[in-house]
């Protein structure tokens, strides 16, 4: 195998392909990136850990076609450190030589015959604008669980009905729901999938710079897979197995009390007040006519409070939240104002965005947060 490629093209492709390599692979070959040079002038780079696969294709001057397997992380580090000159990659016996200007590296190869076959990309079922996918996934994954002992809750439930996609995630303390439109391959396409939040977030960030991202899905026919494709890059992931809890019903049908606050002002105040909140202690928000008072700390501990203007509809109400969960929800909103809708001080509070103080709230994104009970 022998090919020449631009340094930036190689570095970008290797870094993207190696991004999901396991830190402690169950077998050594899974730490490798497979390079396959084709006589047509295409080099395909691939990685796979039996759960997530990644493939990228780059154009190169291929003098001799061939296939090798080398350490993905090492190749990524080397390619990023090379000078801005053409890179020659040559297989020489059991080593791969990488030459760029005056720099020369030799990497040991791994047995390519021991490398598992990558899963085939499922059928494409539609496409979505890259920036919309990135934004929507970022809003939903803040609520997904990071606790691997509850694998179902580390996933995002994706529901597809025609031109509408709904994404849901919860860690039992908060729930995020995002609805958006996309372009399905068939106008009456319908399906559901439970995708690992980490995988979905990684795919959205790494492919979201593309104009359109193709979504591929296979469920109920052997191996359940989701795939994403854009700009010569393909990634697939096994779906999470299991029945996701019926969380939609947790959103209240009626909220007799709601308050509207400038979002950024509330974020900055919450950050300041939460500085005195010890681990696992809440930040309290007391709403009354025309204002909300934030406070944290009590007794002999450090204390802080701050009053902000707020428009309240309904009775006065005081709630307390985990400061980070509150900031996560506010940070996921992309509107000037936030509406907080209440039913009871101890019942979940719904956060939605609002474009103006007097306008209607946008139900396209909803963040539900369970308050912390506190001694009054």
Can you tell me about this structure?
The chain is an alpha+beta fold. The protein is built from six helices and 27 strands. The strands form four sheets. Strands 6-2-3-4-18-17-16-10-14 form a nine-stranded antiparallel sheet. Strands 15-11-12-13-27-26-25-19-23 form a nine-stranded antiparallel sheet. A five-stranded antiparallel sheet has the order 5-1-7-8-9. Strand 2 and strand 3 form a beta hairpin. It is elongated.
Brief rundown of the structure:
The protein has 376 residues and is α+β, with helices and mostly antiparallel strands. Helix content is 18%, strand content 43%.
Show the helix and strand layout.
Elements: E1 2-5, H1 7-18, E2 32-38, E3 42-48, E4 52-59, E5 61-64, E6 66-71, H2 72-81, E7 87-92, E8 95-100, E9 103-108, E10 124-129, H3 130-141, E11 155-161, E12 164-170, E13 174-181, E14 183-184, E15 190-196, H4 197-207, E16 212-218, E17 225-230, E18 233-238, E19 257-262, H5 263-273, E20 283-288, E21 291-296, E22 304-309, E23 311-313, E24 317-321, H6 323-332, E25 337-342, E26 349-354, E27 361-369
Antiparallel strand pairs: 1-5, 1-7, 2-3, 2-6, 3-4, 4-18, 7-8, 8-9, 10-14, 10-16, 11-12, 11-15, 12-13, 13-27, 16-17, 17-18, 19-23, 19-25, 20-21, 20-24, 21-22, 25-26, 26-27
Helix pairs in contact: 1-2, 3-4, 5-6
């Amino acid at each position: 195998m022998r090919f020449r490629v631009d340094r930036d093209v190689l570095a970008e492709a290797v870094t993207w392909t190696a991004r999901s390599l396991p830190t402690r692979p169950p077998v050594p070959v899974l730490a490798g990136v497979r390079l396959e040079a084709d006589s047509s002038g295409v080099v395909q780079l691939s990685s796979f850990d039996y759960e997530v696969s990644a493939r990228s294709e780059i154009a190169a001057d291929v003098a001799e076609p061939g296939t090798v397997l080398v350490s993905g992380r090492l190749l990524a580090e080397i390619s990023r450190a090379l000078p801005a000159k053409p890179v020659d990659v040559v297989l020489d016996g059991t080593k791969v030589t990488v030459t760029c200007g005056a720099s020369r590296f030799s990497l040991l190869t791994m047995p390519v015959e021991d490398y598992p076959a990558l899963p085939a990309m499922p059928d494409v079922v539609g496409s979505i604008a890259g920036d919309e996918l990135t934004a929507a996934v970022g809003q939903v994954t803040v609520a997904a669980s990071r606790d691997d002992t509850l694998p179902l809750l580390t996933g995002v439930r994706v529901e597809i009905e025609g031109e509408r996609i709904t994404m849901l995630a919860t860690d039992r303390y908060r729930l995020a729901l995002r609805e958006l439109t996309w372009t399905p391959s068939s106008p009456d396409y319908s399906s559901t999938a439970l995708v690992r939040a980490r995988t979905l977030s990684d795919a959205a960030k790494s492919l979201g710079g593309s104009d359109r991202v193709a979504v591929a899905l296979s469920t109920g026919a052997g191996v359940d897979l989701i795939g994403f494709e854009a700009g010569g890059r393909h990634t697939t992931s096994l779906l999470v197995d299991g029945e996701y809890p019926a969380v939609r019903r947790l959103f209240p049908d009626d909220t007799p009390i709601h308050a509207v606050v400038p979002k950024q002002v509330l974020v900055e105040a919450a950050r300041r007040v939460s500085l005195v909140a010890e681990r696992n202690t809440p930040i309290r928000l007391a709403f009354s006519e025309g204002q909300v008072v934030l406070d944290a700390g009590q007794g002999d501990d450090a204390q802080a409070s701050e009053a902000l203007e707020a428009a309240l509809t309904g009775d006065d109400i005081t709630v307390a939240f985990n400061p980070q969960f509150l900031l996560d929800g506010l940070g996921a909103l992309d509107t000037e104002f936030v509406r907080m809708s209440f039913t009871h001080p101890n019942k979940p509070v719904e956060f939605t965005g609002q474009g103006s103080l007097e306008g209607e709230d946008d139900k396209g994104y909803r963040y539900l947060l369970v308050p912390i009970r506190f001694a009054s």
